Structure formats: C-alpha cells, structure tokens
Amino acid sequence: MESLNFLLQGFGTALDPMNLAFAAIGVLLGTAVGVLPGIGPALTVALLLPITFKLDPGGSLIMFAGIYYGGMYGGSTTAILLNTPGESASVVTALEGNQMARRGRGGPALATAALGSFVATLIATMGLAFFAPMLVKVAIQFGPWDYFGLMLIAFVTVSATFGSSPLRGLTSLALGLWLGLIGIDQLTGQARLAFGVPNLLDGVEVTTLAVGLFALGEALHVASRHLFNDEKPMAIRGSIWMSREDWKRSWKPWLRGTAVGFPIGALPAGGAEIPTFLSYTMERKLAQKPEEFGQGAIEGVAGPEAANNASAAGTLVPLLTLGLPTSATAAVMLAGFQQYNLQPGPLLFVQHPALVWGLVASLFIANVMLLILNLPLVGLWVRLLKIPLPWLYAGILVFACMGTIAANPSVVELVMLVAFGILGFVMRRYDYPIAPVVVGLILGPMADSALRRSLQMSLGDPMILLQHPGSATMIAIAVLALVAPFLFKSLARFRQDED
Amino acid sequence: MTFFRSRLAAGWLVAAGAALSSPASMAQDLELTITAPAGAGGGWDAAARSLQQVMMETGNARSVQVINVPGAGGTVGLAQFVQGAEGSPNQLLVGGITLVGAILTNKAPYDLTAVTPLARLTGDPLVIVVPKASPYQTMADLMEGIKGDVEHTIWAGGSAGGADHMLSALVTQAAGQDPAKVNYVAYSGGGEALAAMLGGQVTAGVSGYGEWQGQIESGDLRALAISYPEPIEGIAAQPLKAQGIDIELVNWRGIFAGPGISDADKAALEAAIAKTVESPEWQDLLKARGWSNYYAPSDEFAAFLAAETERVRAILTSIGLVE
C-alpha cells in the first residue's frame, strides 16, 4: 500500500516539533475565530498570508489547515449555546442544539458535536488520504443536471421535514426561495429584485438571515413572553457529559452524517449546507423517538455536525487534486500554495509528496488537538447558560449585531438583520417553521443556476435531465419522496374503509 | 516560537502585515489603506495584499492596511471608496477589467472616472482551452467549429460579463458569427468552470492561465491560445494574434487613489508605487503568483483606461448585456 507508506512519512513531517506548534496555533486561532462573530477562517488565513511568507511552506500550510478545521469546530458552539449560527453550515446544528441547551442539556449537545466532528473528520481525512484521486474522477462527472437532481431531493425532504404541517413548511420555503432570487443573476449578470440598492446586488447574506431569524427573532420572542413568565435561568440538568444513552443515540448519526458529508463536500459545487440538511432529515426519519425532534433530539446535533465536518475534509479533495477551491477558505489556502510556487492540481501529489502527505497527516493531528481542546471547554461554555435570561438575550443581541457589522460593515446589512429579526418573531408567533427560509435562500439560487445551465447546454431541451442516469435516478428519488407519504396515507385509508 | 506567537497576538487582528520588520531607515511616512472591492480569496484581494506586503518590505510605506468591501463585482467597494476617500492622501483602491464591466452591467452610480488612476500593475493572459478528448486540436479547428454551429459551441468560464465572457464573444465574432449568440455558461469562478471542462460537459473554456495551469501541464486540458499580445515565457500556447486572429484581451489590475487629490499627494503615491514595482521583491512575487508585469504609470494608465472602457462597452453591447 503505497499511500500508507507515504502517510507514515507524512506523520514524520507533521510530528516535527515546529510543525506541531504550527498546528497548535492553527487550531487555537481557528476555534477562536469560529466562536467570534464576523471573523471567518477565510479572513484569518488571508490576514496571516503575508506573515507566513517567510516561513517554511509545510509549517504554514499545516497551520492554515488547523485554522480551517478549528473554524468548523468553533462554529457549532455559538449555534448551540446562543442560537447564533456563525456560518451557514451550522444553521441546522442550532435547531436541535439550542433546544437541548435550553432544556439544560447544553453539555451533551456540545460534547456530541465535538465528538461527532472528531469521528467525522477522522474518517473523512482517511477518505481524503486514500480515495482523493479516485473520488475526484467521479466528482467532475457530476454535471449541472445532477446538481439539479440533488437540489430536488434536498427541497423535497427538507420541506416535508420541518414544521407542523407541509403547507406551513412550503410557505416558509417559498419565502426563502424569493429571498434567494434577490441579487445579480449568475448566468446573465443582470440584477433581480434589487430595487437599485447596491448592497442587495450580491443577494441576501445567509448568515445575516440565519442570525436575524434565529437569534434576534428568538430574543424578541422571549422578551414578548417575559412578562408572563417567571424568570429562571436555563438550569443545567443532569451531567454535563454524555450519558450512556446519549452515546448510544449518537454514534450511528455520526457515521451516517460522515457518509453524507464527505462525498457531497468533495463535489466541486457541493458545499457544506446540503449534507447538513440531508443528515438532519435522515436522522429524523430514522430516530427511535421522532417526537423529540424540535424539542432537542441529540441525533439532530450529532448527524449534521458530523456531516458539516466531513464535508470540510471533502472540500480538500478538489483543492489538492484539481487546485479547485470550493470555499472561500480553500481559495485563500490556494493562494498560500501559490506563494510558495506550488500549483495544487493533478501534479501536486507527484511533485511534492512530502508536503501533501505532511499536510494530510497534520490534519489527523489537528483533529486530535481539537478534541483535547474542545472537550474541557464544554464545561466552561455551559456556564454561559447560567446567566439570567434578560442579560443573556441582551448579550445575544449585541453579539448578533456585532457579528453582522464585522462581516459586512454597512447600514443596509444591519437594517436587514433587524427586519429578519422581526420576521423571525412573527413567524414564531404564528408557528411557521424558520429553517426552510434559510434552506430556500441557500438552495434556491443553486437549483436555479443548475437547471438553467443544463438547459443552456441542451439548447433548451428539458429531456437532458432524464437522459443522464445520475440525474434521472435522483429526480426519481425526489418524486418518490414527494408522492410516497400521500400514497401510503391513502392506501392506509383505503384499507381502513375495507375493514 | 514565543516570539512568533506574541507577534501574532499583538498584530493579527489589526493588520497582520504591520508586524513585519521593515528597514526603518528607508521607511517613508506613508500610512496607507488599500480597499480590495472583493472578499478574501479573490484576485483583487490577492493584489491588494501583495502590494501591502511588498510596499512594507521595500520600505516604500510605513504601514499598509487592507480592507475588503465585497459586493456586485466591485461596484459596492468603488461607491464606498468614492464617498470616503475624497481628497485623501492615504487611501487606495484596487480594480481591474472586471470592475469596468461590472460598472456597465450593474449601471453603477460611479464609474472609474470618479477616481484617480495611479498605475496599472499586473496583466494576466486568459487562456482558451478544450477538454483532452475534444476533436479540436488547434485554434483554427475551434474557429471552424464556431462558424459551423455557434449554438452547439458551449463555452464555460467565470462570471457573466467578466473578462472570460468577453473573450468568448470576441472569438465568436472573429469566427464570423453574431456574438449575441455565444452560448456561454457562467460559473462563479474558474474553479467551478474547470470541473465542467474536465467532465467534458462543454466545448471550450476560458479562464486566467494560472488558474488552469496545473491541468494544462498535466495534459487534462489542451490550451489552444492565450489572449496576451505577445508570447509569454513558460507558456507553450501562442497568442491569438500570432495565430492570425486579431484579438487581445488582458485581465489587468490597477491601483487608484480617491477623487480630487492634490498633485503633490498624487506624485508621492505614484512614486511609492513606481519604486515598489521596480523592486526585485515585486518581481519575485509576480513570479510566485504567476502574474505578468503590466506596469504603466499614471498618465499612460489613464489613457488606457479611457480606451479600455469604450472597448468593454462595445463588447458587452455586442453580447447584449449592456444596452
């Protein structure tokens, strides 16, 4: 096994004390920027590029990878504790994670997120080490028609999953789709629904929408109920660690989340969001106690968190094998490679094996470091929840606004944040699910351009969607998922009538 | 290590580069802020941060900060810069051919006549490629194909109205077809378009040479031509002009100062940039980044900019993106 041999040599490189130190700095910085609002791993790596110019390439790339993985870990913390997802991939984590935290189970939620991330990253990094060149061959065959099929599956499963009734779920989704249309159309470069506001030309920022709907909406809702309720801080019930049952309920979602996250992350336009949605839906369908979903089901944290981290490792597949950055952080890391005259691409594995395998090995090491760093932090984080509610929510409001302003310094952005906060409050008040709005915003534009690219390539012939086996299969699955529940229901009714 | 870490802690949030040591004796008094009208990871961000790095290394500025103002192909950053940098002696903006196009397609409130051109810095060749399995071996084959069936010649490249799109339209026109008919599939960047090329879903592709260099060298893509006026050392593909097709299109990037700055301030900034560009450090950086030197001083750049704006307008009008 040649790869294994290379990997062992890679560990030799990565275990060099200097490189270990770089990895440690990386994961510390990454966790910090993951938790802090507004500063993402992409900006951090960009800021560090000029400093690292004089350092040895291996060391600084190892540090960048640590930042990348650390950011993925840190992002879940604020989502669980404060219902403030720092990045779009953590939106799903906030759904069940925050419910768990509010029921005094913040500790197990954070622990299952950290352990799930560890397991997922471990498996996915192995996938990266051994299957990258093979996987990428499949991934580039994925045409726009296949992406469209994937989006259809995501739409159907997501709208059926969230909310008390499909109609409410679809209403929220439609709202999200509408928001997703705002901005410059990718295929023609023309503005849609921007009404001449330049800040709208790039569309609605996912994190602004998510933070507005989740954090601000939540804070307003709590404030509106405050008069009628006794003030009680969120008590921590039970152990802050995972119980035997928590373990039992977590390990399968970790593995399933990884299985979904890694391949989709490796797709050139896969992203980290779709696998988290799919994983959440999957866990909800497979759960022993589906009624707990929406009330803090641990599977709903374990699965999506694993999927999120597995897709982060998946992103490195096209980066290392094609030189194709599929996320902002990956794009900055690519610049990091270039500054040392390294061209990621098909030849990188051949020309610089020591560097690549050192990087892969240090990903394993960074992963272990993150676990050691994050598990003790759980005890510290959950204390945040002992803060009296008015203080906590005031803090969340400040945190949310600060993060939005830091990420995108403009008044328009802040106005949008507040508007989304009010929208979130109204939706909560009238019991409309919130997550489908975010899903619509993320998936809408992707599905739009995938469909139109397909039609452009077929000169307008819609049959192209059915002519490719991949997209035909996925569309069939989506149709089945849409029709099956109704079919089963009427079948059941039919039988009842017969009895 | 502690030395490095303490430096990190002190400086990484504000301006990481500021912690770099620069020879104090040479340092001028310039304290600059460069606006990159794009997010981290893009070409303008890279250009701004490269300039930051070399200006401080060579002591042509005491400190340089880079701020990112992403949005709408750079027009959001431009608008903010025009309003905020009026008469300011220490604010700079990075921009390029894509910004010229975005101003036109977005009907932006300000164009580049509102700012003061200081220098043209880099110019990258665009490359025209076909997948490995394509029947087209030469540029002439591709032109023949376009002539025969313009609609089935599917192009992949970066954002709509960008330099890649413009080049595909120019080639289509040179093949004797209406550029409004060009079947151009826009991707969010060279990366995503690369996947479509490697998957063989499209006929031809356009991107910056550097972005696809790895695949061209490994033989996964066949480079037919570059859009640079002259041959470039280390690039086997020949210019369109050398192949008898009278097209040149350079993905240039330049640096601008705010509106209405005084002549003395302008001269100081120009001199600092000229010295930076002449330094061996800048030449090394260009090489590392795979960029080509395309330096032109202020007056020449201003004239170039006026001509280029009209040319871009004509190309985008021919595609139908601008009325």
TrEMBL record, chain A:
Question: Pfam families, per this entry?
Answer: TctA
Where in the numbering of this chain does the DUF112 domain appear? 20-438
Q: Which UniProt keywords apply?
A: Membrane, Transmembrane, Transmembrane helix
Is Transmembrane one of the keywords UniProt gives this record?
yes
In which domain of life is the source organism classified? Answer: Bacteria
Residue ranges crossing the lipid bilayer per the database entry: 20-49, 61-82, 109-132, 144-163, 169-187, 316-335, 355-375, 387-405, 411-427, 434-451, 471-488
Q: Which InterPro entries match?
A: DUF112_TM (IPR002823)
Q: Answer whether the UniProt record assigns the keyword Membrane to this protein.
A: yes
Which PANTHER family does the annotation name?
TRICARBOXYLIC TRANSPORT PROTEIN
Q: Under which name does UniProt file this protein?
A: Tripartite tricarboxylate transporter TctA family protein
TrEMBL record, chain B:
Record-linked SUPFAM superfamilies: Periplasmic binding protein-like II (SSF53850)
The answer on whether this UniProt entry bears the keyword Glycoprotein reads no
Output the Gene3D superfamilies linked to this UniProt entry: Bordetella uptake gene, domain 1, Periplasmic binding protein-like II
- Alphabetically ordered keywords of this record: Receptor, Signal
Keyword Calcium part of the UniProt annotation: no
Query: Which spans of this chain does the record mark as coiled coil?
Result: none
* Pfam families according to UniProt: TctC
Instruction: Write down the superkingdom of origin.
Output: Bacteria
Cross-referenced InterPro entries, in alphabetical order? Answer: BUG (IPR005064), Bug_dom1 (IPR042100)
Q: Where is the signal peptide?
A: 1-27
Note the CDD domains from the entry: PBP2_Bug_TTT
Give the family per the record. Belongs to the UPF0065 (bug) family.
> What PANTHER family does this protein map onto?
TRICARBOXYLATE-BINDING PROTEIN, UPF0065 PROTEIN YFLP
Q: What is this protein called?
A: Tripartite tricarboxylate transporter family receptor
